[in-house]
Amino acid sequence: MAAKLQRIPALRSQRRAGGGNRNRAAQEAAIITAAERVFAGAGFGGATMAAIALAAGLPKPNLHYYFGSKRALYQAVLERTLREWLAPADTIVADADPRAALEGYIREKMRQSFTRPYASRVWANELLHGAPELRGTLVRTLRPLVRRKAAVIDQWIAQGRMAPIDSMHLFFTIWAATQTYADFEVQICSVIGRASLDAQAQEKATEHVVSLILRGCGLS
Asked: What is the pLDDT of residue 18?
């Protein structure tokens, strides 16, 4: 009984720590989401921690507590964007069905463009300015991953499972076709005469992009 009683405080402490970790993660995620919006609108130079705190509905000291500086918060925004963009590529493996794998990847990229447009705009703005914060990440993380996935696609091509294409440029095409709905939403809405892209318009755009790319890969 004594041993059981001694373990109770420890278990309670662990539960409190677990709850604290979850609360911290939720707080950080909320701050990053608010920062995406501010960085997308003002750029890194024009954004302020005060504006991000206002968007997050938090006191400014909270931002410094979690991230330390505006640059650290900006890097966190870029890191989360890259992490979420890379995850869908996990379906592109040698024993997968090429059509299903590529279709799933394209659909997820389109979904992210519609649901997380500010993240895409921050990323695009960073690249347009020469990728001062991202250059190392592009070389260390993005390049090896794309090369691995391109090798899988080259294997599918060699096996006659899809049309011969440039596997590396396929990724550039997918990124351009999907991220344009986030980065150039205003242009798209202006041309088609809509104030915004509703669920029906998003579905129509997704089906178009999926069909176009899969046909180009010989997978229609």
From this structure: 56
Q: Is there a domain that residue 85 lies in?
A: yes
Q: How does pLDDT run across 78-103, given as a tens digit for each residue?
A: 999 999 999 999 999 999 999 999 99
Q: Would residue 68 count as lying in a domain?
A: no
Is the Cβ–Cβ distance between 47 and 38 less than 8 Å? yes
Q: What percent of the chain has pLDDT over 70?
A: 91
Question: Residue 64: CB partners within 8 Å, gap ≥ 6?
Answer: 49
Task: Please indicate, yes or no, if residue 98 is contained in any of the structural domains.
Answer: yes
CATH value at residue 119: 1.10.357.10
Rounded to two decimals, what is the model's pTM? 0.86
Residue 92 lies in domain = 78-216
Q: How many independent structural domains does the chain possess?
A: 1
Q: Which residues contact 121 (CB under 8 A, 6 or more apart)?
A: 40, 182, 183
55 domain-assigned: no
Q: What is the pLDDT of residues 126-184, one digit of tens each?
A: 999 999 999 999 999 999 999 999 999 999 999 999 999 999 999 999 999 999 999 99
